[in-house]
Fold:
Amino acid sequence: MVIFAPRYLLDNKSSHKLAFAQREFARGQGTANPEGYISTLPGSSVVFHWPRNDYDQLLCVRLMDVPNCIWSGGFEVNKNNSFHINMRDTLGKCFFLRVEITLRGATYRISFSDTDQLPPPFRIDNFSKVSRGVESQFGCFICGKVEYILPLR
Structure:
């Protein structure tokens, strides 16, 4: 008996319609979708394979339902990992997706989920000898007030 299994499964657990492409095809596209891109609706999954094996095997993602959203940078999907991916629109606003890559059998499952309920994936270390004030321009990061970061000891 022979069992066929996909190598990559893209699982969209986010609330956005997502587009995926190999980095070589997404590079320089800005907000346009390149030839050969694939897309998923929220809550759906799609099997993925590399259109060209001679190019770097790096995946790019874009939020299709966010106006003027630009493609993310490429990232590896061939090892277990968990991280945030950042995309921007043409005005510079950031959009994050949580990415979780797990190997189950012969298939890498790449899950994309929203980060609305998670804290921003930033860490600020103060290596100076004086306190520094930090304020988020969006206000949600530190409740709209200046937060002081004490020097590391």
